[in-house]
Amino acid sequence: MRTSPSRARVAVLGGGVIGVATATQLARRGAEVVLVTEAELADGASGRSLSWLNSFGGMRSQAYHQLRLLGIDRYRTLAARLPSSDFLKFDGGLTWAAPGEESHRVAFEHMRHNGYDAVWLTRDEVAQWTPGVDPAAIPDEGAVFNPGEGWVDLVALVQHLAGQFTAAGGRILTGGGAAEVVVESGRAVAVRTGAGERIDADAVLLATGADVPAMVRRYGVEIPDATPQALLVRTKAVDTALRATLNTPRVALRPAPGGALVMDSDASAAEVIAHADGSYEVKDSTVEQLLREASAVLAGHPQLELDSYGVGRKPIPGDGEPVFGELDEVPGLFVAFTHSGATLALIAGELLADEMTTGERSPLLEAFRPCRFH
Questions:
Q1: Measured distance CA(46)–CA(233) in Å, rounded
Q2: Angle between helix 341-358 and helix 17-28 axes, rounded to 10 deg
Q3: Within a domain: residue 85?
Q4: How many domains does one find in the chain?
Q5: Which of 23, 53, 106, 213 is deepest in the core (most CB within 10 A)?
Q6: Cβ(167)–Cβ(29) below 8 Å
Q7: Are residues 166 and 97 in the same domain?
C-alpha cells in the first residue's frame, strides 16, 4: 500500500544502529523526530555485534546481496569523510573451513561469478595479503580473502550518528523504559514511554531488534523469528598486526578501537545459559576457551586478557532475510528487523527515511516487506 505523503512528526523506538541511522536521515529530511530507547544507546544487539561488513557467500537472495553491497558502499563514503576514524576500517576479511568440513570453494566460485572481490590464498600466501595470522592455522586447501570487506565498531558509530541527529534538531529520550505504540482507529498515532509520556507522531518506526516480532504480534502480524542468543567478548589491548576480520571454524574476530580485539563463535553462544527472568549466565570456561581459540589463529599466539563481554539476543528473521517497511495492518507503523544490521544500517536508514517522509515505496525494499509472510 502507498503511505501518506505528508509526514512531519516521527517517533523511532530503538537506540541501536538502525534506529539511530534512520532517525538521523529523517532529521536531515526535515522531519520532527524523537528517538526513544528503553535504556541507553547501543546497549542491545548493536553493543555486542562483531559488525563484519560483508556479503560473503551465496546463500541469500540476489536482492539481499545487492542491498548489502549498497550498505558497504555507504560505509565507504563515511570512511572517506572520516579518514582518521578508528571505528571504521576496510582491511578485508579472511575465511577458512576446518579440515574435513565443507569447503568454501563453492562460495568462492559464486562470489567470483557475481563480481564480489574474492581471492583464494594458499597457506604461504596469507601473510602477503593480511598480516597477523598464524599460517599454521590455515588448512591445506587454503582460505578465501575478500579485500573489500571491513568492520565497524557500532557503539562508536551510534555515538557519531547521535551527534549528527541532535545537531539536525532531533531529540533523544534515553531511559524511556518499555515504550509502546499507540494505535487509534487502526493507525499508529503516537508512542507512549514507560514513564507515561505520550509522543504524538505521523509515523512510528519499530527498530527494537529482537523485540520486533513480539511487539507486532499484538496487531495480528506474524514475523517468523529465528533469533538466537549471542556472546561477544572484548579483550584488553593486545600487540598484534591483525587488521582484517577473521572467520575461522572455531572463532570469528576482528580488531577494535584502542588496540583491543572482539570475538564470538556459535559454540560459545550455545553455552550461554538463559534464565526465565531474562538474565544470562556466562561460564568463565566459555570465555577462556574463546580467548584460547582466538590466540591460536594469531601470529605469535599472544596472551589475550578479558576486558568485557556482552550477552543477549541477536535479531534474525525466520527466513534469514531482512524485514523492512510499513505494516499493511497498521498504517503509519514501520518495522526494521534484520540480521546483518551493521552492514545494512546506513542504507536501510536512508531508504526507510525516504519512505516515511515521501510516502514513496522504494523498489530496493520490495523483497523485504513484512507482508511477504501473509
A1: 14
A2: 30
A3: no
A4: 2
A5: 23
A6: no
A7: no
Is 188 among the domain residues? yes
Query: Domain range spanning residue 360?
Result: 9-47+155-224+318-373
Question: What does the alpha-carbon distance between residue 373 and residue 221 come to, in Å, rounded to a whole number?
Answer: 9
Other CB atoms within 10 Å distance of the CB of residue 197: 15
- Give just the sign of the alpha carbon dihedral 331, 352, 160, 150: positive
Hey, CA dihedral for 79, 83, 87, 92, is it positive or negative?
positive
pLDDT in tens, 315-350: 999 999 999 999 999 999 999 999 999 999 999 999
What's the confidence (pLDDT) of residue 280?
96
Residue 213 lies in a domain: yes
Q: How far apart are CA 276 and CA 104, in angstroms?
A: 38
DSSP of 97-154, one letter per residue? PPTTS--SHHHHHHHHHTT---EEE-GGGHHHHSSSB-GGGS-TT-EEEETT-EEE-H
Model confidence pLDDT, tens digit, residues 13-26: 999 999 999 999 99
Secondary structure of 64-87 in HEC code, one letter for each residue? HHHHHHHHHHHHHHHHHHCCCCCC
- Asked whether 26 and 32 are in contact (CB, 8 A), the reply is no
My answer on whether 178 and 191 are in the same domain is yes
- Give the residues across from 328 on adjacent strands: none
Residue holding cell 583464494?
120
Task: Identify whether residues 339 and 219 lie together within a single domain.
Answer: yes
Q: Looking at the DSSP assignment, which residues form a beta bridge with residue 298? A: 133
For residue 25, report the phi and psi dihedrals to the nearest 5 degrees: -65, -40
For 234, phi then psi, to 5°, come to: -115, 135
Q: pTM surpassing 0.70?
A: yes
pLDDT under 70 in the chain at which residues?
1-7
Report d(CA 275, CA 126) in Å as an integer. 43
Q: How far apart are CA 249 and CA 97, in angstroms?
A: 6
Q: What is the CA radius of gyration of the chain?
A: 21
Spacing of C-alpha 157 from chain mean position: 11
Distance of CA 363 to the CA centre of its chain: 22
Distance CA 323, CA 314 (A): 15
Residue with cell 558509530: 157
Distance (Å, whole) CA 157 – CA 51: 11
